[in-house]
């Protein structure tokens, strides 16, 4: 009997060139989530499904996160055909992915999003995932670079987008992730400010029931962690 791999290919229609293409998915029964960092970076036993979230059309070069691959309008299609497809050299992204192959796929998605002037929240999501991939590689320099890109775009999204739209990050998670990314980038005062905004919303009955309790507990823990760190650093300098 042939060995069953943790990944398999499935078919989808490319919304840009109308080709029937294959992309690779993970059998979730074959993996186990071990833990998550406070910015939601996941660690798995077995194959990491994060590696496969970037879907690339081998025919035209269109790429997107698997959850939004077919959510593209006429203007965006025209931009992809003009900016990506004209320069695209056909290649496949199916099958087993290494970190390097996952990085290549996600950076192609980021290029697509940038060229088609996608919402900042979508760009931020991809930048954050690229940062996680660099974290897995212990490449702190590039991780920090993409955390900074993610932070800027999440902040722009919070100020400019309607985050109540289905499929988007909600405003409470956006506030939390901004605070968390500020903390990771050693912007401690900013981190406390953003976490505090979330806590203030939680005090409002109109918002309280919409905010996951775990998010609030983590935000409070992180504020205390930052304050302890800042107090310890102050003592060292005295």
Structure description:
This protein has 238 residues and is of the alpha+beta class. The chain folds into 2 domains: 1-164, no CATH class; 170-232, no CATH class. Helix content is 52%, strand content 12%. It contains 8 helices and 6 strands. The strands form 3 sheets. The protein has a two-stranded antiparallel sheet with strand order 1-2. Helix 2 runs antiparallel to helix 3 (120-136), helix 5 (171-184) runs parallel beside helix 8 (213-237) and helix 6 runs antiparallel to helix 8 (213-237). The longest helix is centred in the last third of the chain and has 25 residues, at 213-237. The chain is globular and about 60 Å long. The mean pLDDT is 94.
Q: What's the gyration radius in Å? A: 20 Å
Helical percentage: 40-55%
Widest sheet, order of strands: 1-2
Number of structural units classed as domains = 2
Mean pLDDT: 94
Gap between N and C termini: 69 Å
Principal-axes shape call: globular
């Amino acid at each position: 009997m042939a060995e069953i791999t943790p990944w398999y290919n499935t078919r989808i229609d490319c919304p840009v060139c109308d080709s029937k293409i294959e992309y690779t998915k993970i059998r979730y029964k074959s993996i186990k989530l071990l833990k998550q960092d406070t910015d939601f970076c996941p660690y798995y036993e077995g194959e990491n499904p994060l590696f496969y979230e970037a879907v690339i059309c081998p025919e035209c070069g269109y790429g997107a996160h698997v959850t939004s691959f077919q959510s593209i309008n006429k203007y965006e299609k025209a931009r992809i055909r003009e900016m990506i497809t004209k320069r695209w050299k056909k290649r496949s992204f199916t099958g087993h992915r290494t970190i390097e192959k996952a990085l290549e796929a996600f950076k192609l998605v980021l290029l697509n999003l940038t060229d088609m002037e996608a919402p900042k929240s979508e760009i931020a999501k991809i930048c954050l995932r690229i940062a996680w991939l660099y974290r897995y590689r212990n490449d702190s320099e590039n991780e920090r670079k993409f955390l900074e890109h993610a932070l800027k775009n999440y902040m722009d999204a919070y100020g400019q987008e309607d985050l109540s739209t289905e499929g988007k990050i909600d405003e409470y998670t956006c506030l939390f992730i901004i605070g968390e990314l500020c903390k990771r980038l050693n912007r401690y005062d900013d981190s406390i400010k953003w976490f505090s905004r979330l806590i203030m919303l939680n005090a409002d009955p109109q918002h309280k029931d919409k905010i996951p309790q775990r998010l609030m507990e983590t935000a409070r823990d992180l504020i205390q962690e930052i304050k302890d760190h800042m107090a310890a650093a102050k003592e060292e300098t005295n």
